[in-house]
Design brief:
GO terms for molecular function: FMN binding; isopentenyl-diphosphate delta-isomerase activity; magnesium ion binding; NADPH binding; oxidoreductase activity. The chain is an alpha/beta fold. It contains 15 helices and twelve strands.
């Protein structure tokens, strides 16, 4: 096995090892104001929203996780089949491993066959050019491309990149890619400044990927033995901070929330704070590894029902109505929001 494919196996093993049942995304510091007389019926509620410009029937999806080795391909096959059965979108992990070595490509190529009834997105690191972005879409036959911004991860990764001139390539991809593009973080969060820059570049979709869930700096630090980068484990903005910091931009760019989502209430809070959709990786991977595909299907359908329960309590029939819900913040979050919006 080559070093890149082996790294994929290590990422999954360490991610599961570091998984925490309670995240630190700070959504617990957000309190929703529920209606005691909501005047609504659960069967009136629609979970329809948009993800990367596509109309979808569920506000959350299986976000980018892995792929490129025998072990991770097996996980991807199961995730793809679950996504297809539940009719929620599925995003692959980075396909760079397959583009650099075709021996690692077969697993990615099969995912489209497993997702005939749902959306498939694929993933690539920043710094790649338009031709490589097109190859990623051609390889997977995906409906859209995620490009991740992972400066800290690359610097901690022993074999990672050390050159980060990304903006021109991102602009060219945004201007000319034939399929929808989403730019995403990897667990340290996208700052309000970054989202503003991306919106000004004409990029229409971002995934905030806030601190609180899978931490790739911590994962890479576990992999290396020649230096200790644990001092970077807690850098970045939490998901709640990211959402509050980008509220003024939500009419300019479609926001996906991710970063340690653990339950239906956190999904709804993310939507209330301005997200159009929610990406979930770590929790779904944990469920799949521990309990298998059937348990994951049950978890997804339960989440959808619980989101509707919460929407009943809030008196909201649609996801867009959730954006109008009133909420309270902790004093700490209020202060952080003020500083982020200076």
């Amino acid at each position: 096995m080559d070093i890149q494919a082996h790294r994929k196996d290590e990422h999954v093993f360490i991610a599961e090892k570091l998984y925490q049942l309670k995240s630190r995304n700070r959504l617990d510091e957000v309190r929703l104001l529920f209606k005691n007389i909501p005047e609504i019926s659960k069967n009136e509620i629609s979970l329809a929203t948009t993800i990367m410009g596509y109309q979808v029937d569920s506000p959350f999806f299986i976000n980018a996780i892995t792929g490129g080795s025998l072990q991770t391909d097996k996980l991807n096959f199961q995730l793809a089949q679950v996504a297809n059965q539940c009719h929620i979108p599925f995003a692959t992990g980075s396909v760079s491993v397959a583009l650099k070595d075709p021996a690692n490509a077969d697993g990615f190529k099969q995912l489209r066959q497993l997702t005939p009834d749902t959306l498939l997105f694929t993933n690539l690191g920043a710094g790649n050019d338009l031709a490589t972005a097109r190859k990623a879409l051609e390889l997977t036959q995906a409906d859209g491309l995620q490009i991740h911004l992972n400066v800290a991860q690359e610097l901690v990764m022993p074999e990672g990149d050390r050159i980060f001139y990304w903006k021109d390539q991102l602009q060219n991809i945004s201007d000319h890619l034939e399929k929808p593009l989403m730019v995403k973080g990897v667990g340290q969060g996208l700052t309000p400044e970054t989202v503003k820059i991306l919106a000004e570049m004409g990029i229409q979709n971002v995934d905030l990927a806030g601190k609180g869930g899978t931490n790739f700096v911590a994962i890479e630090n576990e992999r290396r033995h020649d230096a200790d980068y644990s001092f970077l484990n807690d850098i970045g903005l939490s998901l709640a901070e990211c959402l509050l910091g980008t509220q003024s931009l939500r009419n300019q760019i479609s926001i996906t929330a991710s970063g340690g989502i653990r339950n239906a209430l956190e999904i709804v809070k993310s939507l209330v704070l301005g997200a159009d959709s929610v990406g979930i990786s770590g929790m779904f991977l944990h469920t799949l590894i521990k309990n298998g595909p059937e348990e994951l299907i049950e978890q997804i359908t339960t989440l959808q029902s619980q989101i509707k329960d919460l929407m009943v309590m809030l008196g909201c029939r649609t996801i867009s109505e959730l954006h109008q819900v009133h909420y309270l913040l902790s004093l700490a979050l209020i202060n952080d929001q003020k500083q982020l919006n200076k």
